Amino acid sequence: MSSTETLIESNELFIGGEWVAPAGSDRIEVFSASTEEPIGSVPDGSNGDIDAAVKAARAALEDSQGWSSWSKEQRADAMERLADAIDKRAPEIARRVSMQNGMPIAIATQLEGAFPQLLLRYYAGLARSVSTEEVRDGLLGGKILVQKKPVGVVGAIVPWNFPQALAAFKLAPLLAAGCVVVMKPSPETVLDSLELAEAVTEAGIPAGVINIVPGGREVGAYLVEHPGVDKVAFTGSTPAGRKIAARCGELLRPVTLELGGKSAAIILDDADVAGSVEQLFGATLLNNGQTCYLGTRVLAPRARYDEVLAVFGGLAGALNVGDALDPETQIGPMASKRQQERVEGYIAKGKSEGARVVAGGEKSEQEKGWFVQPTIFGDVDQNSTIAQEEIFGPVLSVIPYDTEAEALAIANNSEFGLGGSIWTGDKERGEALARRVQTGSIGLNHYMPDPAAPFGGVKQSGLGRELGPEGLEAYFALQSIYLEAGPTATAAP
Ligand code: NAD
């Protein structure tokens, strides 16, 4: 199947509500992950473009009639119009994401083509209902107005694995709070953001509220430390997040970090493993393993170890691997050659460290595209490289355990703490164990982040939370106005 008929080209960047010429002349060339053919190109954003975008964002923020001073109702209406405008473009957004990063089109349609609108509508509802002002009685006898104000200009940096959904994790709550944004997509996935920009224009979002500058890590670093940025929202790898956190620490700039993971899928001795294959796939291999929260360490009771290996081995062997645009495809290619080589390096490492290959483990037989064979390792040492480092590909490590206490200890033996799952026929037992796993979220007999609940990591998986009402709070700054003095105010420190 040919990935595309015509190249998707843009010569301009979406800044200040207009398509403007970029400051530099470099371009980002994008290739199909499935065919390695060129599929389009856009200007490679540079520091000058970030300067222009931040300036436009600040002007929008400071406009006394502008977005931040619109009523909550007006903003919520505009967010719903944006969701409607994205709806119209959803099939094309899903197609572009699928071509660029190898996400199977069936998954791209369900997630990339639908999650942004779901989040925009959810946060539009929260924008209408959230209370941003409260008058309190002070302890010293006076009155205080406590106000939640938009934190200001947000620098949002997103990765390539779910470019539109993860952008919306930031965009929807920040718009609801009255903030404005300069967004930097990853160079691997820039073509989908052109559609987002068109939707922003159609929805009548005021100029400068949403600005998009694609570019690499240097441009991202420049955005993080730009004096016109008030808050940074980052999703990406733990090493990059650490650098960004350090810089934000120096600047005392608020930052939210959604980082890597190496979650555990804990299979208890009463689980219906064979009957849960579809859910197990979603919790361990979704999007070709290029998903941060996946349970890539599968913990199996020793008494049922061979059975678990057989189910996962059968699953991996039966998966439809192919062109990401084919609706039948369950596993597409990696997003880039670099990512393919990285995952192959981990497979080689697993073998050299003595793990047993139960399925896959060889070079992909596909002639073109950055494919990796879905690979299941058995007899994996919980401290080995493949059991500790984030691989970000379709590679699972199945680790045996003897007791539930040992399963918990193995699950928590990780520098990460993002997602995870527990598989059991006894919900109460599963919930009791879930409470003891050191992770930001965890699912029983499935895993899928729900927009109504806070999502994020503990340990090296991040700082702060996105989604849920909690995700909205990250875009507010608090101000207390002491309206009147009480009789004892002068005696207070
Ligand atoms: P990455 O960290 O290399 O890049 C992510 C984004 O940050 C890109 O836009 C990149 O250009 C930019 N960037 C990189 N270094 C930067 C720096 N020093 N300053 C500013 N910007 C910088 O990650 P990736 O390879 O694109 O994405 C995969 C990673 O993202 C995985 O580790 C995965 O677990 C993580 N991820 C986390 C979540 C989550 O919600 N926790 C979700 C998806 C992906």
UniProtKB/TrEMBL annotation:
Coiled-coil parts of chain: none
UniProt keyword terms in alphabetical order: Oxidoreductase
Domain Aldehyde dehydrogenase: 19-480
UniProt xrefs under PROSITE patterns: ALDEHYDE_DEHYDR_GLU
Active site: E258
Family the UniProt entry places it in: Belongs to the aldehyde dehydrogenase family.
PANTHER family: ALDEHYDE DEHYDROGENASE, ALDEHYDE DEHYDROGENASE-RELATED
Protein name: Aldehyde dehydrogenase
Organism: Paraconexibacter antarcticus
